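Annex B. Sample input.
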Amino acid sequence: MASPFDHEKTPLPFLIAPFFLWGTAMVAMKGVIDTTTPLFLATLRLIPAGVMVLIVAALLGRKQPQSWQGWAWIGGFALIDGTLFQGFLAEGLQRTGAGLGSVMIDSQPIAVALMARFLFQEIVGPLGWLGLVIGILGISLLGLPDDWIIQAATNFTQAFSTGHWVAGQITPFTSSVSAGESVWSMLLGHGEWLMLLAALSMAVGTVMIAYVCRHVDPVVATGWHMILGGLPLLGLSGYTEIQQWQGVTTVGWLAIAYSTIFGSAIAYGIFFYLASKGNLTSLSALTFLTPVFALTFSTAFLAENLTTVQWIGVGFTLISIYLVNQRALLTKRLMSLLAGPSVMGLLKTISPDMSKALANWLSSNITVDSSSE
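Annex B, continued. Sample output.
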C-alpha cells in the first residue's frame, strides 16, 4: 500500500512557524496553569480556536463536510488528536515543566515512523532504527525517576566490574514505591508519561489526517476536530473540576489567548495543511525545534531547570528525532561517501572482491531508495 503523502517544497519560515508557536504556547500554558484547571485550559485551547478556524474557512470559501464518511473521520480525529491529545497534554503539564513536557510530546515522530513502516511500508532503514533505539533510551531517561536511573547505572557498573550480578540489586527500583501504590500509578504521577501518551495521540492523529483530507477540506477538518474534541473536555471539566477561572489574572488570560490563537488556531491550521500535502515522516523534519523553543523560553521566563539525567535524556531524544526525520537524507549522504573514489579506491586495494560487493550493494540500495520516494 503506497503512502498517501507526497513531498512538497515549503518556505522555511512557514515550516518553522507551527513548531515555534507550539513551543512558546507550552510556556504560556505552564505559566497560567497554576491559576486554573487542566481540562478547562485544554477546552479553552480547542473550542475557541476551532470556531476561529471555521470562520476563516468560511471566508475562504472552503467546503463543509459533504458525506457521512467525512464526519466519521472528523469524529475519530477529534477524539484522538483533540480530546486525548489536549487532555493528556494539559494534565501532564500540571505535573512537569514546559520544556521537558515539550520534549516528550515531540518524540511523536518516532511513533509516526513506526506506524508509517507498518501501514504504508515506508522505509525506516538502519539510521532510522538507530534513531528509534536512541529515542527509547532518551524517553526512559526523561520519564523514569532519576534515582531509578542512577541506581540502575550503579548496579550495572558494579556487575560489570565484579563479573556477576548480586542478588537483591533490583530492590532499590521499587523501594521508593509505598505499599498500595503501583508502579503504573507512580509513573502516571510523573507528567512526562502523560506527555508521552499525548505524543502517541498526536502521532495517530498525524497518520489520520491524510485519510481525513480525502473526504474533508484540511482547514475545515482542523476547525471541526477542535470543537468536537473540546466538548468532552468541557463536560469533564464541569463535572470534575472547580474554580476553573476565578483565579486567572489579566496576564493569565493573555497567556491563554496566545495559546488559543497562536498555539492552536494558527499553528494547527498550518501543521495540518502541511500534513495533507507533505510526506508522512518528513513532515516533522523540524519537530525537534519545538522542545528547543520550549526549553529556551521556559528557562528564560519560568526559570525551569533540568537535572543532569534529564538533560542527557533531552540530548538523546533530540538526536533520535533528527535521525528519524532526516534518515533518508543522511543515508543518501553516507552512501555517496562510501561510493566515493577515496573509499572505493582504498577498499579495492585491500580487497577487490569486497570492493565489488560493496559497489553492487550500494547500487541496489540507491535504486530501491529512489524508487520509494
